[in-house]
Every structure is written in structure tokens, then in C-alpha cells.
Amino acid sequence: MSTIGVYEGYKSPLSTRYASKEMQFLFSDQHKFATWRQLWVWLAKAEQSLGLEITDEQITEMQEHVNDIDFDAAAAEERLTRHDVMAHVHIFAKQCPKAAPIIHLGATSCYVGDNTDLLILRDAIDLLLPRIASIVYCLKNFALKYKSQPTLGFTHLQPAQLTTVGKRSCLWIQDLLMDERALRRCREDLRCRGVKGTTGTQASFLQLFNGDGEKVKQLDLLVTQLSGFDKSYPVTGQTYSRKVDVEVIGAIASLGTSIHKMCSDLRILASRKEMEEPFESTQIGSSAMPYKRNPMRSERCCALARHMITLFSNAANTHATQWLERTLDDSANRRLTLSEAFLSADAVLLTLLNISQGLVVYPKVIERHISQELPFMSTENIIMAMVKKGGDRQVCHEKIRVLSHEAGAQVKQFGKDNDLVDRIRKDPYFEPILNQLNEILDAQTFIGRASAQVDDFICDEVKPILANYEESLKRIQNVQLNI
Length: 483
Prior knowledge:
Elements: H1 13-18, H2 21-26, H3 29-49, H4 56-64, H5 71-81, H6 84-95, H7 109-145, E1 150-155, E2 158-164, H8 165-189, H9 203-208, H10 213-226, H11 243-271, E3 275-276, H12 296-320, H13 331-357, E4 360-361, H14 363-377, H15 379-388, H16 393-414, H17 420-426, H18 437-440, H19 450-466, H20 470-477
Antiparallel strand pairs: 1-2, 3-4
């Protein structure tokens, strides 16, 4: 077989371009197979403590070789056996000749495979949660800074009543808090598979302990505790239920929807020149158009977030098609789905943190856009002011309707600015309220409780969650990511 050059084989962009070294390590072969070996050590320790003839010397020998993995030898062995777990059992046994008779004693392949996956899922969620909290922290500061900055609200992507820049960002934060809660719940609900045997009945372990069911239950508990879990799943087939993967990947897919929504908003606002993501002095926005400042980070987030969303279908269909105690068609799919879900989430959160640390707002542009729409939005207030001065509502309504259509024609047909206010000022009918017009058109009077809502939301909802991540937030506050 010809060798493949460094640049001639496929490499995932998740590892070469996007995800962190920490997340990549969790899904690496080194970590996976070292964890298999550690699980064999824990099994031996638990079996020894319950009376099986396993020596301290055997356990020590195994522990000394946990990280010393000969991957080439394991690959050669797997080509012969067509079985990855037995290949690693054989190689580990060659390195630990004294422990060889007791390695994998009573266990099935899913003892190491599934328990390792659960340990990796746990640690991977532990990486994601502080990243979400850090983004929420940055957006919280942003929301407070701009809580009273009026801006056009949009429904149907058409200008609607005013909101504030800070209030809008609280919508993003609220979604992320829901994602934090969902992932935290997944983390809290994760359990160890423990020692359950080939179809989940623990028959092999019952035989090892001569029918002593209490010792088998204790063995399951000991391995669970050595793995760092409080509980194991009480019943399994050959595998832990793939419903667990559905819940975890579901939470990551849901996180993808939040990120896609937020970054789509940022892209729309960037097109209106109201907000921008960070843009370095040497950054190139386009190879053909030097003036462009493309929101490439937000676009990257949307791209990877879509991938996160689609992975839920894989997890759901895998669980749906697990016949009876287990079918092996979950294996190849999960190798892709679990790793790509977490690597994608990790990459997106790192990028979004960078965006959140350096969001740029252009108030003058926002004010100009408001000035183009606010006259139309203020017509009801103008009518009410005229009525208070003794005017007839129906007459005033007709006057405003005519002037509004004339001003609208100037905007839509001739590309001019909205001149409704000038038309009102020039119409003698509105003379009774001309001294009130500036007050009526003050954008601050159109934002309702937006500013107070920001304060209440951050106090009641955001700060209690961020308090759980105090240490990780201290580390991130002084770090400016260059992504």
C-alpha cells in the first residue's frame, strides 16, 4: 500500500481550524484508549476488593502502562482480530504479562466503550458550560451599557416599535441561559454504565462471584464511584440507552439554534451598519472589494451551528433503530456524531466569545434610522395631543393620513428622507401642538420599560447563573481571544 503524504489525506477542519486543543484531546485516540485501560484498572481494583484473586502487583503493572499505548501494534492486531477492544486487550496484556489473566475479567466490550463515552461526554460538557457562561458575562456587560440606547425594533423584518440595543441583547442572553440549563441538566443526569455484561443482565459477574448478587451490585457501585459518578444506570441492554445521546446532542443542537439566531441578528445589523463584530486593523474583508467589513465570525458561527442542529437527527435515528438489546449500526454513526457535536459547539462558542468581547455599536447610524421611521410611529401620539387641545380625532386622523402618504412617497418613489415632521410643522392645523413636537418625537418616550427590563432580567436571571462560574469568569475577563 502506498503511503499518503501529509497533505494527501482527509483532515477534519474541526481539528485543523476550529476546535480547542482541550476538546480535541477529549476525543483523541490517546485519551480514549488510555481511558479504556484505566477502566480495566478500576475493574480489577473493585474485583480485588470484593475477594477475587487479583494482586496489588498486577494492578500496579496495569496502572504503570495506562498511557503507554503502542498504536501501531494495536492497529496491526485489529487487522487480524477485526475487533478493536480485543486488539487493545491483547496489546495491553503483552505490556502487562503478570496482569494478562485478569484484564477485562468478566467484562464485555461496552464496559470500556460505553463507560469511556460517558466519561468523555461528562468532561466535554464541563468544557462547554464555562464557555457559555463567559459569553453571557460579556453580553451582560453589553446589555447594561446599551440598555437605554433606543433602536428600531423589527417584526416581519419590517420596522416596528422601538426597543433598545441592550434589551435586544437580553433576548440572546435568555436563549443562552436556557442552553446552559439544558446542558447542566444533561451533566447532572449522566451516569456510569457500570458493569452490566453482554446483554445487561450481569450474568458473567454473577458467575465470577459464585451467584452472590450483592457482590455484583457492590462491584457495579465501586466501578461507578472510581469513575467519578454517583450513580450507574440501573438497567441497560448491551449498551447504555442511546436516549442519553439524544438528550445530550439535543441540548447541543438547541445551543446551535440560539447561536444561529444571535449571529443572524448580528449579520442583519451589520448590513444596516448599526453594529459590527470585532474587525482587526489588518483584516481583509474581501479579496475583490477592499472596503468590505464582512461579519465572517458570525457567518462561521452560523455555518457550524447549522451542523450542530443537523446532528440531532443522527442521534435520534440511532436511538430509534436500536433493536432489542443492541445493534452495532450505532457504532460508526456515534464515532462521528458525538465528536463532531462537541467539537463544533466548542469552536462556535470560542468564536462567539470573541465576538461578544468586542461588539461595536454605531449610535449615530441607529439614530438616523430611527429618524426615518419614528415620524410614522408617532402619528397616534400626535393625534392624541391634538385631541387634548380640542381637535377632532377623525379630522386629525385624515390630516395625518394624507401627510403620511405624501411623506412615504418622497421616501419610496424619490429616495428622499422622511419629511413628515416638516409637513406637520408647515400645516396650520397642527399649530396648537408645535411646541410639543420635539417631546412627542423623543425616542426615549417610545422604549417603554426596556431599560428597566434589562436591569431586572440581569439581576433576577443572569447574575444567579453567573455566580456558579465565578472562577472560570475570573480567568476569562483578562483574556482577549484572537480568532
